[in-house]
Amino acid sequence: MIVTELDLLERARIGDRKALERLVQEHRDSLRRFLLRMTAGSAESEDLLQETLARLVKAVPTLKPGSNIRAWLFRVAANLSMDRSKEKKRGSSLTGEFPSAPSDPSDRAEIRELAAFVQAEIDALPPKYRAVLCLRVYEELSHAEIAEILEDSEENVRWYLFQARKQIYSKVKGRL
Amino acid sequence: MNCREMEPLLYDAVDGPLSAEMETLVEEHAGSCGECDALLNGLGRLENTIRNLPPPRSAPARRLSTRPLLALAAAMLAVVGVARLLSTGDPAPANAPVAQTDIVTSLVEAHVKLAQAQTTDAKVETIQSVLAGLVGECRHSCAKGDFRRLVEYAESAESLAREGLAPQIDAASRGKLEALLAWLDRTCRELQQDRRNEYIARVSSSCDDLRRITRRALEEKR
User: Fold this and answer.
1) CB 3.0–4.6 Å: which of A134, A166, B131, B211 could bond B184 by disulfide?
2) For residue B93, is pLDDT > 50?
3) A50, exposed or middle or buried, with CB in 10 Å at 0-12, 13-18, 19+?
4) pTM of the model as a whole
5) Distance CA A151, CA A37 (A)
6) pLDDT for B63
């Protein structure tokens, strides 16, 4: 029998520990990946992940049947990471390491430099732009899903994406 | 459509497939406008670079912030782990089962159990059972000298101490909480005898906080 996420949520809501653990497992890796992107690789991402999951555990009995658990989790993670970003002084966010050199032997130093430069520009984006870009590019979510996560309109999501790419492009176009 | 009107469409083109009508518009315009053609190509290269960026590697651990939610089980786990290490004086045996779960899983499991506990009695019992289930992992950390994890737990205890146990206490649970206090007293004494390094000292400090809060809560109920 195929157990859907809605089934798991329903069981978790009435106290099925295994169901809740499965829900957590389903989304933990993508949440961790997203938070690493949002925090520029900071160890803080693990804090935020734990906080996100802890909030799920606390909230699950009160979630409505049929809730989109993925959207809920990413909403919490995005809000936590955006709030944390706002607290930090601009310029102090580059705590992570730049991407390591790809293993392709044809890669050159310029490619690594470009990647590092682009990563730095992503990290320097306003938190909301960064969240939208990461959800779109790395989590491959639709505009509608991102809008649901951020409780915003699809139109605004498209606008944030446009602005995010435009900002990055304006900084790196000379290197492309 | 002029270049200014075309610009958002060029960005849309790298974001995802355009409708056939929009795609034709973009192709026709880029075919006759060198500037927009260059922008489209540049955006394509940028998008390719962004998509191929590896996830940032996690930076070295720093002092973690305290976590506000139900961290009691994890915090006490650290105390139990250290206390047991100190009391046995030897690391976990080589054939001891080593928990493969990470801290997140452990905490989530602890949170789940605690969240499901309906009464204070059940909460206290759950905490004790959670400790029993997770102690292996903590001993493993001790055996490996991985005190950073213990410090994470200890900091959670500090947060818990601030929130206080008082709201959870009712008359029916006095016995169990008194037992908890006795256990904390004993553990604190053991820890104070062996502050071998700053990590154990910090765990000891958290344990002390927890003891103080528990005692105060009990006194308030008298």
Assistant:
1) B211
2) no
3) buried
4) 0.57
5) 21
6) 33
